[in-house]
Amino acid sequence: MKYKKEYLVESSIRIIAFSTIAILAVITLFIFSQGMPFFFGHTISGMVLGLVWTPKEGVFGIFPMIVGSILITIGALAVGVPLGIACAIYLAEFTHKRVRAVLKPTIELLAGIPSVVYGFIGIVVLAPFVRIYLGGSGLSILTASVVLGIMILPTVISVSVDALLAVPHSYKEGSIALGATEWQTIYRVLLPAAKSGILAGVILGLGRAIGETMAVIMISGNAVKLPGSPLDSVRTLTSHIALEMGYAMGDHRSALFASAIILFLFILTLNVIAMSIMKRRIK
Amino acid sequence: MNARTFQIAVKIILFAAVSLTVAILLYIIIFILYHGLPVLTLEFLSSPIRGMGKEGGIFPTIVSTLYIAIFAVIVATPMGVGTAIFLTEYTQEGRLTRVIRFGTDCLAGIPSIIFGLFGFIFFVITLRLGWSILSGALTLACMMLPTIIRTSEEAIRSVPRGYRDVTYALGGTKLQSIRHIVLPKALPGILTGVILSMGRAVSETAALIFTAGMSVQTPTSVLSSGRSMAVHFYTLAREGISAPNAYGTAAVLIITILALNTVSYVLMHRYLKRYQ
Question: Nearest CA to A214 among B118, B233, B195, B20?
Fold first, then answer.
């Protein structure tokens, strides 16, 4: 009797363990089954490189959205990565363990703040600032980049701090013993040693920036056109899907799912890269 | 400049970076609370939404949020903890665990809008659950699974090996050791993950708009549609319906998140102390 129960629990746990794989498979299946039919009637290159999006006339070009996603992500990295790595170095090397134990969770709180709240702060604080001092409508690539840069900070900081702390202590001691200052040690020894971990953090942050939806909808203006300056409005792939999904039908809907496939493949590739980098680090 | 002065300069710059980050965090919290707290009255929390949010309170959204968050956790926790138990207790590191970890990491990286699309096409349309609390909660359960797995795995792994050995030495079975020794010891760590996931459910918007719907009514069953607080806040803020109500809702969101994070931090801290 005892062993029967034992066996029952073990086999159900074995089945449960595959739930993530099953969910991943079902998600992939459904997104692809909804989006793939679109490519039977339209070419992939026509969609990815098309400049015009007029669903009513059956023209589905998402090139401006892809450009928008890429530009905003690059902007977010330009803001978030230097700031994040600077914070990580300070937290890992220049603070006492006890101070770090308070500061790190505090900074990780940034990850808990809802993205709609970030978007809102972007609308009421940052956008007017950009509009008054730099011009344009304020709902721009620049505004979105700054807000997203802040949003990826906790990811970049957390992963980088862990990477820096994982560098063997003897490296540091060796360098200090040779007469190097703490900063020389950090710059020449610790950062190169933690390079792959920090890179993984940056890529995870990148994934978060590309995938962010609500904050970007609120602050990037959502115009379907190629931007000419950082003060222009753009639409990202994610906000494109979220904005039009509510009323899309037929071809229009499958075009949106096709956009989702492109986004999905993009993010999956990024994750696989980040994972392989992290794995190399563990070895 | 010699190396020592250079180091001092660098240290000041790095300190400035940390200060800036903390300042941004405090600014966001204080800004929202400063504008939102005056709106927060008992009436605001307990009245229905009137005029699409122009007037009235946010009671229905609180109920919807609670329903969705709790239901999602109820679905995701057994799956997450089960997977974690499998990874730590029932198998050795190998191809199988690598595949499961790969799946978990991929799931963690999928953007919430894709979960939203999936939930819409799978739960809402294919399974015919409609725009409902249930569809929203199931979608969120898929989303929070990686977090729960990761934190539970860490918590279970940090229970010392010897605890299990003692059970076996006394003639206990694997299941007994898991149920009576490992899980109770790992409980605070597991709870940390569950609470953090609830925070994620509270703040999620993109995945809920197309799954739980936008109804302003208080949900009466798991099959009725209901907008969560974050979704309500998004509508208020984006469509400029009512600034005071938007600030009030944001304040409730921020306070909830702060409370959940504090609880999980305290739990984690106590838990870590025990094994150090």
Answer: B233
